[in-house]
Amino acid sequence: MDKKQILEKFSQLVSIESVSTDSKRHKEILKAAEFIRKELIQLGCQVNLYQKDNCPPLIIGKYRPSFAPPSPKWLRRPSKATEGKAIGVYAHYDVQPEDPITKWKTPPFKLTVKNGKIYGRGTADDKGHLIQVLTSIKRLIEVDKLDNNIVCIFEGEEEISSKNFEELIKKDPSLKNIDAFYVVDMGMKAKNIPQIFYGLRGVIGFELKIKTSEIDLHSGVFGNRVLNPAQLAAELMSKMVDGQTHEIKIPGFYDDVKKTSKEEIELLLKSNSTLVSKVYPALDINGVVSGYTGEGFKTIIPAEALVKFSIRLVPHQDHKKIEKLVEKFVKNNLPKEVEYEFREPTGSNAFYTDFKNPFAQKTAEVFEDVFKNETLFNRSGGSVAAAEILQRVFEKPVILIGFSLPDDNIHAPNENFDEEMFWKGIVAIEKIFAQ
């Protein structure tokens, strides 16, 4: 399989506008799932698609050397006398919206190779990694060097909090037999500086609507007489988090936060990590909507205010418990006569695993062989719900890896994947699958 063929497959997948946040493009999600299903079947995988209602399908493709059909082209033996480990590998095929489209220098859904970069929405997050996985399997089959069982777990809801992932993976009992899971949705520290992530923060997204009247009111007539929902929202959030120290002031919030060990701090400092964004919780206002925001002035007291905010969690904090603490805090800090409504929060717990486990250490050796630099062990301030779910449900090691770079513009215009890291990443995954 030459580079031209690989890029053609990559181009076909990027051209599918599988934006999971946009219900109008649901057919594109299904189109992407069908494309991947066919690719897995061509590799000799047994493929199952799992869905709840009309959600994006979870694709599980299982490659077993003993069951793979013989192929004259690949020169495969009809069967293997023994099989190796069972390796699970996760990636996702849904992508973020392309907005703002005017900031793109290349068409977002047309793969463009330019100046050592592969441009297009989803190239780095996460279709590029998915193509790397498929390519690695195919290349190992072609040279008859894949003796391990490989189980591909490809999700279509990662960008919308993986809300059905846990329920869907439980539908496939064979996943219990996997020895270790690789989540291929992370990135390099820098070009040719590999890293393995052993920790992620969890996240909860909140949406709170505060309402004080049925309609906007004249500020000259009703000022000082009625409550202003925008001001109430501002006061509430200032009580919830200190804007200078970032301390979260919700009673009981820090009860389950554990102290980071000296050994781990030294490990993180080795990778030049910013500790405050890796090992501490955080609360951030993501957006506020209230009143008049057009040109000029409209002297009103708005009828309602909408606040969107998120909380990043650290290991040992339970998102369900934190959700209840937040709801109690809001109830206790808003005037009793004020109407408010919480949209059901979406949340996931933090992920943490032992960075000394044999799979992680062996992967570090592979990376050092491919990239010729020491592998760093790191934690991320971000969240990948699937990692925590896979670990909790199956109680097996989960190793987070990836080959994108910090300047690949993930979730932004001109998203790209560095060419050199793309091709080297394929080699690294091959070595992981073959070991």
UniProtKB/TrEMBL annotation:
Stored SUPFAM superfamilies: Zn-dependent exopeptidases
Domain Peptidase M20 dimerisation: 198-336
Presence of the UniProt keyword Hydrolase in the record: yes
GO molecular function: metal ion binding; peptidase activity
Source taxon at top rank: Bacteria
InterPro entries: Cyt/Met_Dipeptidase, Peptidase_M20, Peptidase_M20_dimer
Keywords: Hydrolase, Metal-binding, Protease
Gene Ontology biological-process annotations: proteolysis
Pfam families found in the cross-reference section: M20_dimer (PF07687), Peptidase_M20 (PF01546)
PANTHER family per UniProt: BETA-ALA-HIS DIPEPTIDASE, DI- AND TRIPEPTIDASE DUG2-RELATED
Listed name of the protein: Peptidase M20 dimerisation domain-containing protein
